[in-house]
Amino acid sequence: MNGPLRIALIVCAALILLFVLRRIRKSSLEIADSIFWLFIVAILLVLAVFPQIAYWASDVLGFDAPVNFIFCCGILVLLVRTFTQDQKICELKKKLVRMAQSEALRDK
Fold first, then answer.
1. What is the pLDDT of residue 104?
2. Considering only CA atoms, which of 98, 106, 104, 8 is closest in space to residue 51?
3. What is the reported pLDDT for 6?
4. Could you report the per-residue pLDDT of 43-94, keeping only the tens digit for each?
5. What is the spatial distance between Cα 20 and Cα 41, in angstroms, rounded to a whole number?
6. Buried b (16+ CB within 10 A) or exposed e, 11-22
7. Which terminal CB of the chain, N or C, has fewer other CB atoms within 10 Å?
């Protein structure tokens, strides 16, 4: 893993950390979400400091380059995160419809 990629990982981790801490301070981020993003920061820092992990994992999983492994893992993590967020949104929509229906029945 070359130097610019390692620097980019550290910078991204620092930016995510600053953003999450700012959102936590403003109380606009749930604890579970903040833990997820802090976990992502920790993983990025570990991969930047110990690039041998990325080399080993990319060799084991058959990736041509560690960069491809990192990007693939990032995409997979964000896809899973999007799916779980979509489930939460669906549940909230159902609750909103039930609440609106019950309020409409009360008004009538």
1. 92
2. 8
3. 83
4. 989 988 898 998 999 999 999 988 899 889 999 999 999 999 999 999 999 9
5. 10
6. ebbeeebeebee
7. C
Instruction: Give the whole-angstrom CA distance, residue 90 versus residue 82.
Output: 12
pLDDT for 59: 94
Taking the alpha carbons of 62, 64, 67, 72 in that order, is the dihedral positive or negative?
A: negative
Pull the structure tokens for residue 82: 């999007």
Structure tokens at 40: 């992502």
CA 8 to chain centre: 17
Q: CA 43 to CA 59: how far, in whole Å?
A: 19
To which residue do tokens 């959102």 refer? 23
Q: Which of 23, 20, 25, 48 is nearest to 36 (CA)?
A: 20
